[in-house]
Amino acid sequence: MEENVFHNVIPQDLVKFGIVPELVGRLPIITVLDELDEDALVQILTEPKNALLKQYKKLFEYDDIELDVEHDALVEIAKKAISQKTGARGLRAIIENVLMQPMFEAPSNPDIKGITITAASINGDEKPRFIMRHNRNRSEQTA
């Protein structure tokens, strides 16, 4: 992997570039940010205390619905954010796009026990899968 030359920038480089020396002298730290890779974006989705995935799971939990997002789907979300060049800020939009319809359908249907998001759901090849409850009254009537 290529080394980013910006990691080696020193204050004199900024002056040569044209920034006023008085301003450069007031900068306590010069740092460089690298683009996030797939692993970092998946970590952002899952690990922080207030991670996006945890937020959506909690929203569905209020309606007694379990949200399951497969690891392949998380990787696909990260790939999509990278290809759109939206980085971590674009993660929410990608997830909302996939979960918009289930967020409206699932709470009004008491038979839905869970929702599974796959990589194909993220790509738009299939819709999120609903996992249905077994209704005891119906099974007792048919027995």
| Rg over C-alpha atoms, rounded to the nearest angstrom | 23 Å
Question: What's the CATH topology label of the largest domain?
Answer: Helicase, Ruva Protein, domain 3
Report the count of strand segments: 3
Low-confidence stretches: 136-143
Q: With helices defined by DSSP (H or I, 4 residues minimum), what is the helix count?
A: 8
Task: Tell me the domain tally.
Answer: 2
- The H/E string reads HHHHEHHEHEH
The shape, in one word, is elongated
Descriptive account of the structure:
By secondary structure, the chain is mainly alpha-helical. It folds into 2 domains: 1-34, no CATH class; 38-142, Helicase, Ruva Protein, domain 3 (Orthogonal Bundle). Helix content is 50%, strand content 10%. It has a 3-stranded mixed β-sheet with strand order 1-2-3. Helix 3 packs across helix 5. The longest helix has 15 residues, at 91-105. The protein starts with 10 loop residues before the first helix and ends with a helix.
Which SSEs are present, and which pair or pack?
Elements: H1 11-17, H2 21-25, H3 38-46, H4 52-61, E1 66-69, H5 71-83, H6 91-105, E2 112-117, H7 119-123, E3 129-132, H8 136-142
Parallel strand pairs: 1-2
Antiparallel strand pairs: 2-3
Helix pairs in contact: 3-5
Write out key terms for the chains shown.
single chain, 143 residues, mainly alpha, Helicase, Ruva Protein, domain 3, 2 domains, three-stranded mixed β-sheet
Summarize this entry quickly.
With 143 residues, the protein is mostly helical.
